[in-house]
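Open question from group meeting: does this chain pack into something compact, or does most of it stay loose? Before anyone orders reagents, we agreed to write out a predicted structure and look at it together. Recording both the input and the output here so the notebook holds the full record.
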Amino acid sequence: MSADLSSVIAATAQWLLRAYPPERGALSAALAEAQCRQAATVAAWLRYPTALDAGLLGVVGPGGSGRLDWVAGVDVVPGEDTAWRTWVDEVVAS
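Structure tokens returned:
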């Protein structure tokens, strides 16, 4: 896996977990986290298949979660650390 995609994968997986939380329980939470990470990894590899694509992502940025939050109806808590949301890629999350 390219290290250039790790920020996008982590942020997108985090967004998926927060937008669609798992059922209660440690096992459900761990399974959901693993599945979100795997899905975001595969989607990122398909979206950015070459080193040049991943490099361009670092230059232009992934776009953030603003539109996804609006579409999914996710409420962003004002005092929350939201810096990771800037690395969410809408296409990878979709």
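Observations to bring back to the group:
The two ends are 20 Å apart (CA to CA).
Helices lie at 6-19, 26-47, 51-60, 66-72, 90-93.
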